[in-house]
Amino acid sequence: MATVSTSEFKSGLKFILDGDPYTIVENEFVKPGKGQAFSRVKIRNLKTGRVVDKTFKSGEKVEAADVMEVDMEYLYEDGEFWHFMEPTSFEQHAAEETAVMDVKHWLKPQEKYIVTLWNGSPLSATPPNFIELQITECDPGVAGNTAQGATKPATVETGAQIKVPLFVEEGEMVKIDTRTGEYLSRAKDS
Amino acid sequence: MDWSPNTTQQTRKSRAQMLHDIRAFFLQRNILEVETPALSQFGNTDPFIESIQCIQHKSESSELRYLHTSPEYPMKRLLAADSGDIYQISKVWRAGESGNKHNPEFTLLEWYRVGFSYQKLMQEVEELLSIVLPDLPKKPQFKTYESLFLEKFNINPHIATNEQLIDCVREHIDHLDTEGMNNQSLLDAILSFCIEPEFESSHLTFVYDYPVSQSALAQIRQTEHYPVAERFEVYLGQSELGNGYQEEVDSKRNKQILNDENQARKDFNLETVKKDHLFLAAAEKGIPASAGVAIGLDRVLMCITGEKSIQKVINFPWDKA
């Protein structure tokens, strides 16, 4: 197994700790002029998303993680797995529910996602920051109502629940920020 | 290519002013500015400081030299040659030390006062720092190493066993594996992660009287219960600025220290380093009773300019050098 020493630590480096893959969020070099050097890191568990602190002595080694981020197209869900495809090689990858748990409501066929692979299996998927989705369910629009800040609940084609302005109609395409789940605007060509 | 300096013109002016103020301070006190070699035949034996090695290729052979990590040994040879009080501002190099507070190449101010006690030198450090850092609050804190550990953890660092220190590390430091840590590195971990963060920001804190495992080249004093090392460190807020000693002048003990450090290197599976025989020869001739201190000037400049990263006060830090 390939190992990485603390001297190679930097944000984004991925390694295995207690059997789980982690990525370094922040790395701080700590050393008294006359003493032991340490690396204090904030690391994110790539399975759970949890961020924890850890302190290493300089020179300690960790096991490198075979983790890759690949652009993929989302295909479909079969009730057990969520299927993605690499657009250049057409290679397909099946993700378990735990891997897509947080983003299930933003999965739209043919849309591009960043899929994190660990030892070749999908670990997580990241949706694009902005996505255009169709409103499948909401109360009828109130004509002429442009009151600032007034919203109503709506459901989009992927199943996510969002809040939209009162004038938005069922069947319209809207642009959403997937990081916050906020409505941004009507999609330009709808 | 990003060729441009990391500093602002204001920071460059602050550095020039700082260097000017320091030289004026020493001139006024009749302390002589000296130079010693940056590239030496000998390296630093300290197991926690790694010298950068340089190789000079010749037609038949090659010669290994070390960039100095501080000008300590040759400056002590000047003291042994009756130089009297001396100071030096020089670039020094420490392999692998990179971060927000570290650059492998940095500027060190080091000075020696013949006949001074380390207490008197601490006062002089305060006088110098209050000139280059005029906005400092008047009163610095003076704390013994022992009082810091007693107040925070009720542990006496001079007599604590490694088992006690390991328990303390396990309880208070996130996931640090204590395997292979010796007394010195356990104390370093507790001081760095649990005690230094509580130093009053924008105040000078002097920590003095270190455990013997932390003595380096400081003189050891016998107290009623245990020996202590006459060493001090000065901090501004949480930032370590300098380190000073009542210098060990006993030639046998200096030899012993260098041997012990090389032994510690073996214990840590590190390459041993060629001892500075010229320093040891000078020590045998006799280094006068003196106190000495080294201050990291880039850290001081960070305090002057308010920059949070050392990379912002060095024109061309490591990645741009």
TrEMBL record, chain A:
PANTHER family on file: ELONGATION FACTOR P, ELONGATION FACTOR P (EF-P) FAMILY PROTEIN
PTM annotation: May be beta-lysylated on the epsilon-amino group of Lys-34 by the combined action of EpmA and EpmB, and then hydroxylated on the C5 position of the same residue by EpmC (if this protein is present). Lysylation is critical for the stimulatory effect of EF-P on peptide-bond formation. The lysylation moiety may extend toward the peptidyltransferase center and stabilize the terminal 3-CCA end of the tRNA. Hydroxylation of the C5 position on Lys-34 may allow additional potential stabilizing hydrogen-bond interactions with the P-tRNA.
Lineage: Bacteria, Pseudomonadati, Pseudomonadota, Gammaproteobacteria, Thiotrichales
Pfam families reported in the protein's UniProt record: EFP, EFP_N, Elong-fact-P_C
InterPro entries reported for this sequence: Elong-fact-P_C (IPR015365), NA-bd_OB-fold (IPR012340), Rib_uL2_dom2 (IPR014722), Transl_elong_fac_P/YeiP (IPR020599), Transl_elong_KOW-like (IPR013185), Transl_elong_P/YeiP_cen (IPR001059), Transl_elong_P/YeiP_CS (IPR013852), Transl_elongation_fac_P (IPR011768)
One GO term of the biological process aspect: peptide biosynthetic process
Main localization category: cytoplasm
Family according to the record: Belongs to the elongation factor P family.
Record function comment: Involved in peptide bond synthesis. Alleviates ribosome stalling that occurs when 3 or more consecutive Pro residues or the sequence PPG is present in a protein, possibly by augmenting the peptidyl transferase activity of the ribosome. Modification of Lys-34 is required for alleviation.
Naturally occurring in which organism (per UniProt): Cocleimonas flava
GO molecular function terms noted in the UniProt entry: translation elongation factor activity
Pathway: Protein biosynthesis; polypeptide chain elongation
Translation elongation factor P/YeiP central domain sequence ranges: 69-123
Name of the protein this chain belongs to: Elongation factor P
Compartments where located: Cytoplasm
GO CC entries: cytosol
Residues recorded as bearing N6-(3,6-diaminohexanoyl)-5-hydroxylysine in the entry: K34
Residue ranges crossing the lipid bilayer per the database entry: none
SMART domains associated with the record: EFP, Elong-fact-P_C
Matching NCBIfam families: efp (TIGR00038), PRK00529.1 (NF001810)
Keywords: Cytoplasm, Elongation factor, Hydroxylation, Protein biosynthesis
Domain Elongation factor P C-terminal: 131-186
